[in-house]
Design goal:
One of its GO terms (biological process) is UDP-alpha-D-glucose metabolic process. It comes from Microbacterium aurantiacum. The chain is of the alpha/beta class and 295 residues long. Helix content is 35%, strand content 23%. The strands form three sheets. A nine-stranded mixed β-sheet has the order 5-4-1-6-11-8-12-10-9. Strand 9 and strand 10 form a beta hairpin. Helix 3 runs antiparallel to helix 4. The chain starts with 6 loop residues before the first strand and ends with a helix.
């Protein structure tokens, strides 16, 4: 039987309090990373992996998100009259990326609850969950590998990355066993934001998941966990412990990842991406070196 096409779910209902006052009236997902909002990088990652249907989970005061992916006839007409084809193409790209839908989360009750809000839209399709705090460099594909592993095994797939053990308390940590596939491990247990001494490894879950719709039934009965929220990690832990099911696999990622979850890492992400750009890097890189030498 041919597998149904994947859909993508992007939770974007958080309050973005780390970036106040910038996020008082603007969703954190709309903060620019060089010259595109962070969420556009995430949608582009999904479409590059072949996903054409994208659902964005939003909260209150997040209308800027839907506006960004709408067409803007007046702006497009103005650019066309000026003959500015380059800017016109950039403006139109965001509205032509995918079939994009929106649903409100209401009260933010955790990542598991946000994913559960996607149930009606996802239906019986397999789907990817992409968090906007983690930007994956387009030169280092991750999602494509995860989709292929799900097609091959039917397992839930999480993205894992080695982090400094002193930072593991900021992530979900995975206990793993080796498999016969290079770069893929079997996840035997998950702990949400453990203390360094309690972490099963320094392999952290980063913000990419590929799931079957079976996860919704588990989330329905998942009790609030850490922070009083419904944790996706808790549902994955149940799937990992089910010896009769396909289980949970981890794809270990060693490529370029940009963490935009706090202010310092957000600035680093902009600097790294801008320095690598062909149109910006040649001018910026010498300036960075000169600036760093004066510190």
């Amino acid at each position: 039987m041919t597998q149904k096409p994947f859909k993508a779910v992007i939770p974007a209902a958080g309050l973005g309090t780390r970036f106040l006052p910038a996020t008082k009236a603007m969703p954190k997902e709309m903060l620019p990373v060089v010259d595109k909002p962070a969420i556009q990088y995430v949608v582009e990652e999904a479409t590059a992996a072949g996903i054409e249907d994208v659902l964005i989970i939003i909260g209150r005061n997040k209308n800027n998100l839907s506006n960004h992916f709408d067409s803007v006839p007046e702006l497009e007409s103005n650019l066309l009259k000026k003959g500015d084809q380059d800017k016109l193409a950039k403006v139109q790209r965001s509205s032509d990326l995918a079939d994009i839908h929106f649903v409100r989360q209401g009260e933010p009750r955790g990542l598991g609850h946000a994913v559960l809000r996607a149930r009606a839209h996802v239906g019986d399709h397999p789907f990817a969950v992409l968090l906007g705090d983690d930007l994956i460099d387009e030169r280092d594909p991750l999602l494509t590998t995860m989709l292929e592993e799900h097609r091959r095994t039917g397992a839930a797939i999480v993205a894992l990355m080695e982090v400094d053990p002193d930072s593991i308390h900021m992530y979900g940590a995975a206990a793993v066993e080796a498999t016969d596939t290079d770069g893929v491990v079997k996840v035997t247990g998950l702990v949400e934001k453990p203390k360094k001494e309690d972490a099963p490894s320094n392999l952290a879950i980063i913000g990419r998941y590929v799931l079957s719709p079976d996860v919704f039934e588990i989330l329905e009965r998942t009790e609030p966990g850490k922070g009083g929220e419904i944790q996706l990690t808790d549902a994955l832990q149940e799937m990992a412990a089910d010896t009769e099911g396909p289980g949970v696999l981890g794809v270990v990622f060693g490529g370029r990842r940009y963490d935009t979850g706090d202010r310092v890492d957000y600035i680093k992400a902009i600097v790294q991406l801008a320095a690598d750009r062909e149109d910006l890097g040649p001018e910026l890189r010498p300036w960075f070196k000169d600036f760093a030498a004066k510190l």
